[in-house]
Amino acid sequence: MNRRKFFRSGAGISAGLFVAAGARPKLSAGRSIRTGATTRPVIITSHSNSTGQDAMRKAWEILAADGSALDAVEKGANVIEVDPEDTSVGYGGLPNEQGVVQLDASIMDGRTYNAGSVASIEGIKTPASIARLVMERTDHVMLVGPAALDFAKSFGYKEEDLMTEKARGIWLRWREQHSDKDDWGPAEHLVGREEATRVMDGPMDFHYGTTNVLAVDSNGDIAGITTTSGLSWKVPGRIGDSPIIGAGLYVDNKVGAAGATGRGEDVIKSCASYFIVMQMRAGRTPQEACEDAIEMIIDKYADVNPDFVPPEKFVALNKDGEYGCAWMGIRGTPRMSVHTPEGVAVFEGSSMYDPVG
Ligand code: GLY
Q1: Given 95, 109, 163, 186, which is the most exposed site by the fewest CB atoms within 10 A?
Q2: Catalytic option among 210, 211, 226, 285
Q3: So what's the pLDDT on residue 13?
Q4: In this predicted model, what pLDDT tens digit does every residue of 346-357 receive, in sequence order?
C-alpha cells in the first residue's frame, strides 16, 4: 500500500495543506505567491550551514559592487569547496569505495548561454573553477577524469591530495563496518566474532551531498554552479547529476536557474533542473517549480515502486530575484542560505512528504 502523502507548505511557514499523491494541490501562502516585486541582486546556496553563509557573504562582495553573477557564483562555490570540514564537496569530500576522492562540477552562464563541466576529476580542490575554464577556454562543455586533471594542470593548477583525515576516518570506518562478509576490521580471535563482524548501526555522515550556488546580478544576468564529491563510496568512475547540464544545474537568462542535490541517478533520468526552469518559464514561481519537480520524480516511480522516497532537494531562483526550495522531507525542513540587499538569511522551503499520513 502506498502510504505516501504530499503536502505543500508555504515556504517559511510550518502549516501545510495535505493532498493525495498525484493531485495538484492549491498553494498556501508564502513565497509561492508571486509578488511582482523585483529584488536584485540575489544569491542562494543549498548549503544552509555557516560555510554556506560565509560563501554568500564572499560572493556578495562581488554582487554589491555590480559584479557579475558568474564571478559571484564561482567565488561562493570556492568557499564551500575548500572547506576541509565539509565532506560533501571539493577538498575533504568523501571518497569512492576505493578511497579515491572524485569530484563533479558544472557552471552555466545565462548571459552567454555557455556551460562547462568536469566529471570524476581527482586532485583539484576547486572543480567549479575548472568547469569555468572548460566553458571559457574551450569549445566543449564537459571534460572527464585524468584528462580533466591534465587540463587543470595546463592552467597552473596543482594536483593535491583531497583526502582529509576526517574523510579518511569516515571512509575507513565504512570499509571496516559496512559488511560482515569480508575481512576488514579487527582479528576475530582478539575481539570476538560479534565485534569482528559488526556492521554500522547508524547512517554515515553523508551519502549524498552537493552544493548549488545560483545568482542574479544587478544587471539581471543569471549564473549557476553545482559542485560535489558525489555519492560517497560510489563505484569508481561513477558520475552523478552535478556535472550534467540540465540535470544538476540549468540556467536560462530570460527565466532563472535551478540546481539539484540528492541522488544523482534520479536527477539525471528526470532532467530535473531543466524541468524546473521550464516550469518557471511557463509561469511557476521558483517555489512552485521545485515542488513540481519533486512530484514529477515521484510520478516517474509510481508504477515501479510507489514506496520509493527520492532524497532530492531542489533550489531555484528567477530573474526577479524570487527563490524557493523543496524536498521530500525525510530529514525535516529543507533550508538554504540566501543573500539579498537586506543581508544573509536562512530560508526554509517546503517538505512534501508525510511519513505517517
Ligand atoms: N547529487 C550528487 C550526486 O548524486 O552525485
Answers
A1: 186
A2: 210
A3: 28
A4: 999 999 875 554
